[in-house]
Automatic annotation (TrEMBL), chain A:
GO terms for cellular component: COPI-coated vesicle membrane; endoplasmic reticulum membrane; Golgi membrane. This is ER lumen protein-retaining receptor. The keyword Protein transport applies. The chain crosses the membrane at residues 65-82, 119-139, 151-172, 178-199. It comes from the Eukaryota.
Length: 212, 10
């Protein structure tokens, strides 16, 4: 465990909590892509099946359980409790265009052709693109609430910090996981455009709105 | 680690 890995995890946790609190406090999930949140719930479910087969550490187990629980709570708030506020008309990204190719790829390119490893690989590939419905929604409506942009910032920061963590681990531990690294690079690149807008607009107190 | 069940990263 190095500082980049730890701050990456905490940044991920911050993103998840920010989103949950935003929905809970405003009693609304307006501007939030339910599809992205469903994909994240699927990501955590397929990745953390090793909870049943192996114990790494108390930290590892607790964080996995928290991520899974929070992602299901978020999906519940969007599709059940505050369904009336869900902006389904703008959440029109076709998720099958992500899930099907990612599913196929995880069968073809993995470390080991075993059920748990294929599901882990699936979750890594899926996570890298799971934010696309949310970014698509923002590009469609042309704007995002500031709190939503904070959520996206921490979510993007998490994978960027993981990239530094992997460089660290490569040099100091000889650890290298090509699947995670390539997917992590793709995932981080998807946030670059958003990072630019976040720094140039949101951090200067302006609302994130895109030119029509 | 790589290709083993039970991952230490999240």
């Amino acid at each position: 465990m190095n500082i980049f890995r730890l701050t990456g995890d905490l940044s991920h946790l911050a993103a998840i909590i920010i989103l949950l609190l935003k929905i809970w406090k405003t009693r609304s999930c307006a501007g939030i892509s339910g599809k992205s949140q469903l994909l994240f719930a699927l990501v955590f479910t397929t990745r953390y099946l090793d909870l049943f087969t192996s114990f790494i550490s108390l930290y590892n187990t607790s964080m996995k359980l928290i991520y899974v629980a929070c992602s299901y709570a978020t999906v519940y708030l969007i599709y059940m409790k505050f369904k009336a506020t869900y902006d389904g008309n703008h959440d029109t990204f076709r998720v099958e265009f992500l899930v099907v190719p990612v599913g196929g790829l995880s069968f073809l390119v993995n470390h080991d052709f075993s059920p748990l490893e294929i599901l882990w690989t699936f979750s890594i590939y899926l996570e890298s693109v799971a934010i696309l419905p949310q970014l698509f929604m923002i590009s469609k409506t042309g704007e995002a609430e500031t709190i939503t942009t904070h959520y996206l910032f921490f979510l993007g920061l998490y994978r960027a910090l993981y990239l530094i963590n992997w460089i660290w681990r490569y040099y100091f531990e000889g650890f290298f996981d090509l699947i995670a690294v390539v997917a992590g690079v793709v995932q981080t690149i998807l946030y670059c455009d958003f990072f630019y807008l976040y720094v140039t607009k949101v951090l200067k107190g302006k609302k994130l709105s895109l030119p029509a | 680690g790589q290709g083993v069940e039970g991952k230490d990263e999240l």
